[in-house]
């Protein structure tokens, strides 16, 4: 196989998973990252195969999940770290209709891999508020997001493949594929929510969807399961939990706000009236696309330039498969599906 020299701008989930896939294919990879990550490292890292509102499976979950588990487990083995844990995820139904959707779905072949059959204990679950009953999701996972990001940065740095700097257009010749006097065969932009501030792909409508989470301390809340209704409640350790996240489209800043904190506590009160103490609050920005599909593909004019972005709110589920598909596309071994292709914007 021909060995290409590939520059990846952005070492978040998109950039690092693509770099891993290219290394698997013995390609020459260089990553650039400015160190201002505001999504991959901040994410809750929940992998939930379901979309609860209408009780549908997450898009392409049957493909994505298997590959994601294998990808994170391999990183655990290769880097000797703990990254992925099965998550006991309980949905507290928000309406009778939701319960009915579950009752119907649980016997469908397509859903039996993801939904436990409802039991009397689920319906009468009494450790928190429970207006309409609850159900347990199968095959949910938790990725320790901060560990993912830090371990990836350390790994690529240790191999000498990471430039810790801000990519600037003035150092770059797009036509020639030359960055700081070094010639690359292909350059992939994986800049997350910073896409609009970058040259070449700023016309691709990647929105900044701000998300805020709280870390709370709360006694007597179940610590062996993650609850979900209006907010997720992710057990951490010693009676602490992460709750969230908000979806904010008007404010692209990284400021934490009182409004978000109040909203998250109000959402939490649907689950429990137990007293809580807020220990921490963080804000991040998801790179999202209106049609909720990522964006993969080649620049319409500069043929050496590519984009892999728009991982949205479920990046940890989707990235391993899409990164492989992107790598195959770059090496001429595969095509990009229309659903995620950049051509839908050109
Ligand atoms: C609050 C919150 C909670 C979330 N929870 C979950 C969850 O539970 N499960 C889930 O699957 N997903 C979750 N997500 C979404 C997930 O984090 C994203 O899908 C994913 O991290 C996006 O990765 P990315 O690499 O595209 O972007 P980013 O992580 O933003 O990475 C982009 C990188 O590009 C670099 N960069 C940008 N511009 C430049 C430049 N000019 N020069 C050099 N480097 C540059 C930045 O430093 C950054 O490291 C959450 C997100 C948020 C904000």
Provide a quick synopsis of the model:
The protein is 25% helix and 27% strand. The strands form four sheets. Strands 3-7-6-14-15-16-13-17 form an eight-stranded mixed beta sheet. Strand 18 and strand 19 form a beta hairpin.
Distance between the termini: 31 Å
Q: Helix fraction? A: 10-25%
Name of the CATH architecture of the largest domain = 3-Layer(bba) Sandwich
Number of DSSP E strands: 19
Give the number of domains.
3
The CATH superfamily of the largest domain is identified as FAD/NAD(P)-binding domain
Shape assignment: globular
How many helices? The count is 7
Mean pLDDT: 96
Unreliable parts: none
Strand content: 25-35%
Overview of the molecule:
This protein has an 8-stranded mixed beta sheet. Strand 10 and strand 11 form a beta hairpin. It has 7 helices and 19 strands. With 346 residues, the chain is an alpha/beta fold. The protein has helices at residues 13-24, 61-79, 96-105, 120-123, 145-158, 258-268, 315-330, and strands spanning 5-9, 28-33, 46-47, 50-51, 56-57, 84-92, 134-143, 162-164, 172-173, 178-179, 182-183, 186-189, 207-217, 226-229, 231-235, 240-244, 277-288, 295-298, 305-309. The longest helix has 19 residues, at 61-79. Helix 1 (13-24) packs across helix 7 (315-330) and helix 2 (61-79) crosses helix 7 (315-330). 25% of the residues lie in helices and 27% in strands. The chain folds into 3 domains: 5-43 and 146-206 and 290-345, FAD/NAD(P)-binding domain (3-Layer(bba) Sandwich), CATH 3.50.50; 46-143, no CATH class; 207-288, D-Amino Acid Oxidase, Chain A, domain 2 (2-Layer Sandwich). Bound molecules: flavin-adenine dinucleotide (FAD). The site of flavin-adenine dinucleotide has 44 residues, from helix 1, strand 2, strand 13, strand 17 and helix 7.
């Amino acid at each position: 196989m021909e060995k290409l020299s590939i520059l990846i701008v952005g070492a978040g989930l998109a950039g690092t998973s693509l770099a891993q896939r290219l290394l698997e294919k013995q390609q020459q990879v260089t990553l650039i990252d400015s160190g201002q990550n505001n999504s991959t490292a901040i994410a809750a890292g929940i992998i939930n195969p379901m979309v609860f509102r209408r009780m549908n499976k997450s898009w392409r979950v049957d493909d994505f999940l298997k590959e994601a588990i294998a990808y994170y487990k391999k990183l655990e083995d290769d880097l000797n770290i703990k990254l992925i844990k099965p998550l006991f995820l309980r949905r507290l139904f928000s309406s009778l209709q939701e319960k009915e959707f579950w009752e119907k779905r649980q016997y469908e072949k397509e859903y039996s891999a993801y939904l436990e059959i409802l039991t009397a204990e689920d319906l009468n679950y009494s450790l928190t508020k429970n207006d309409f009953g609850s159900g347990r999701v199968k095959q949910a996972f938790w990725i320790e997001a901060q560990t993912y990001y830090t371990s990836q940065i350390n790994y690529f740095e240790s191999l000498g493949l990471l430039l810790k700097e801000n990519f600037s257009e003035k150092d770059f010749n797009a036509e020639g594929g030359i960055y700081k006097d070094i010639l690359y065969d292909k350059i992939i932009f994986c800049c997350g929510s910073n896409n609009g501030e970058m040259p070449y792909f700023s016309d691709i409508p990647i929105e900044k969807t701000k998300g805020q989470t709280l870390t709370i301390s709360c006694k007597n809340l179940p610590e062996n399961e993650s609850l979900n209704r209006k907010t997720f409640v992710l057990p951490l350790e010693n009676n602490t939990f992460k709750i969230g996240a908000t979806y904010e489209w008007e404010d692209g800043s990284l400021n934490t706000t009182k409004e978000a904190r109040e909203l998250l506590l109000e959402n939490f009160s649907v689950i429990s009236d137990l007293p809580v103490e807020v220990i921490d609050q963080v804000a991040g920005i998801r790179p999202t696309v209106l049609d909720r599909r990522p964006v993969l593909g080649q620049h319409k004019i500069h043929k050496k330039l590519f984009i892999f972005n728009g991982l949205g709110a479920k990046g940890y589920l989707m990235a391993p498969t899409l990164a492989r598909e992107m790598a195959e596309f770059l090496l001429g071994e595969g095509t990009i599906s229309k659903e995620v292709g950049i051509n839908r914007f050109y």
